Amino acid sequence: MRLQDEPDLPAQINIVPMIDVIFAILTFFIMSTLFLTRSEGLPVNLPKAATGQTERPAQVTVTIDKSGKMFLDKQVISIEQLENGVRQKVQPQQQMMVVINADEGVNHGQVVAVMDKVRRVEGAKLAIATQKP
User: Fold this and answer.
1) How far is CA 85 from each of CA 27, 68, 76, rounded to the nearest angstrom?
2) Gap between the terminal Cα atoms of the chain
3) Hey, what domains does the chain have and what are their CATH numbers?
4) Closest residue by Cα to residue 98 from 85, 110, 107
5) Positions of the chain with pLDDT under 70
6) pTM score, whole prediction
7) Between 20 and 30 A from 105 (CA), which of 20, 27, 35, 114?
């Protein structure tokens, strides 16, 4: 006598663990792309301007912090060396964007002096970094 055979159950694939893995990978990629921002200047409190426009990425950034220290692409520089420093970074026959990234507490005269030095360099276009209010 033969025991009654169990009915054949169709094969099943449990996809819940696969969905968990996919969501974990997706979360990893989303979180990692949040940290891929590129910052050329040092952090300062930028002044607010409602009419400010977003420019293409700058090639050279002149930063003036609250204490009045000046940096050319994160390297300390004096006002006397600024013109030659920018001139060395300008490629022949190409326009270069020079962004002034000055703290709002910096003396207006110092910003004008930086603008004057940058304007003396051939091929350098000038922009001032602002923040929207």
Assistant:
1) 43, 18, 11
2) 88
3) 60-128 (3.30.420.270)
4) 85
5) 1-6, 37-40, 54-58
6) 0.59
7) 35
